[in-house]
Automatic annotation (TrEMBL):
Gene3D superfamilies named among the record's database cross-references: 1.20.1530.20, Regulator of K+ conductance, C-terminal domain (3.30.70.1450)
Family matches, as InterPro entries: Cation/H_exchanger_TM, Na+/solute_symporter_sf, RCK_C, RCK_C_sf
Main subcellular location of this protein, as a coarse class: membrane
Listed name of the protein: K(+)/H(+) antiporter NhaP
UniProt keyword annotations, A-Z: Antiport, Cell membrane, Ion transport, Membrane, Potassium, Potassium transport, Transmembrane, Transmembrane helix, Transport
TM stretches of this protein: 6-25, 32-51, 57-78, 90-113, 164-187, 194-212, 232-256, 268-289, 295-322, 334-355, 361-382
Species assigned in the record: Rosistilla oblonga
Membrane topology term: Multi-pass membrane protein
Biological processes annotated in GO: potassium ion transport; proton transmembrane transport
Amino acid sequence: MLSIETLILIIGILLLLGIASNKFSARAGVPVLFVFLIVGMLAGSEGIGGIEFEDYSLAYGIGTVALCLILFDGGIRTPYSSIRSAWKPAGVLATIGVFITALITGAAAAWVLEISIWQGMLLGSIVGSTDASVVFSVLRGGGVNIRPKLANTLEVESGSNDPMAIFLTIGLIQVLSGEVPFGFGLITLFLNQIVLGSVVGIGIGWGGAWMLSHVRLEAAGLYPVMASALALFSFGLAAAFGGSGFLAVYLTGIVIGNRRPVFYRGILLFHDAVAWICQILMFTALGILSFPSRLVGVAVPALLISFVLIFIARPIAVFLCASWFKFSFRELTFLSWVGLKGAIPITLATFPMLAGLPSASLMFDTVFFVVLTSALVQGWTLPHIARYLKLEVPTRLPPPVTLEISSLTNVDGDIVDYFVDESCQATGRMIKDLALPEGVVIALLVRDEQIIPPQGRSVLHSEDHVIVVLRPRVRALVDRIFAHREQLESPIPAELEFPLRGSIKVGEIEQFYGLSIDTDNDATLDELVRKRLDPADVKVGATVRCEQLAFRVRELSSGGSVEYVGMTILPQTDPNNGGEAKSLGSQ
């Protein structure tokens, strides 16, 4: 039995090795999951570390807690816009797609391993889902920058497909154990997982967001702790009632993240660190749990099963499920390739061991080998596949970074650091000509490590950092001003009024926001409004429409000139998209 001092020493060494491994994986292009698992195997009883560990219950506990916090971190970083753009294809892939993948892989596993068809289906169910922690890590930190709809689909699918895999795994274990008959009992189990997990996750998310915004805590560090407590409470409550804890904690994170609670940036930073600690400890512990000598024995059948999973089962599932959602052939091919496996399959593989099922050890070793193969083959080649399929989109380096306003009250504002390079629209322009919305203030310029107090006539140079104070609702407009000239940008939100100075010229709006206004480019918004209204009608609240734009007078000066207008982008019907409304401003 290890002493607590020795255990602390081992954990510290494993964390340091994990950090060093991440540095190595970033340079070599090897997926961090693969490296962490190898570190764990080297630290295990058959490696140089010699750590004796074969407690599947403890491994399941470590994996569950770690995945809970990793999913919560993924949830709080997922905006509603990602959900809206991807919930349909992601939902089908997370349910029917997982089922098809499990069915095909399970049939292959039963034939290759010479086990019963039910045991084969159990193995297929275990490896049927895409792992959220690996997908989040690859898409957000692996240098893969793909089209938003594609990335959103992968993230939402990986965060929501665990209930289906868990339902299939637990259901088949209960069928094999004789606890639940095949049929109605499985349907009830599935509905409980989805419905209860969703209700608990959304309910605690709304309640937790309210608490984080209205409960005054004296120490700033307690807000991230409260968020973590809400995540664990959501998981535990859903699981206690028979729902999916993983789905619940992911939904709780989504709701809290989109409600922007007090100390929001601090919560994000804290959970980013927690997610990394969880990944290192979870994958390393699962690596220690494995036995390399046993993996050699299942290498050939596991490679055959991996081949079926990667090149047959996942592609068939993707093309059958996602072809209906207007993905191109190249995008479907990429979706097929990003069926990354990770901690969820290895954690689920401990279930048969805990249940004492026949061939449980064979299934665990096979699943472990399949995960290693998936991480190495799919994870390592992912950036190359994206480039080969021409799915990468331009990225701004370095991207704008939102900083934290240090306050324990809910301040409706952000501090954003924009990097100006040669391709930026704002390069070479004076600050007074940037067409910034009302209330947006450039607080600071940083050039060559020197601080420059900004003035209206200050010219922005390439390599400048521009520190901007703004309200979150006008962030979309300011992002456009500092965007690349050739970069594809997301549409400006429709039916949201943006305040602009009356002295801003029409040409500046057209240039920075990608909008078209049928009038003289040198005319100001004040002149535009006066030209289209009778003098008696120029008053606060008066509105002028220009095709799909509306300008409302918000404030007049003492001399009667228009000081501020509110610009609203009206919904535009797209005849090629079934009559659905779309926003202007997309390139």
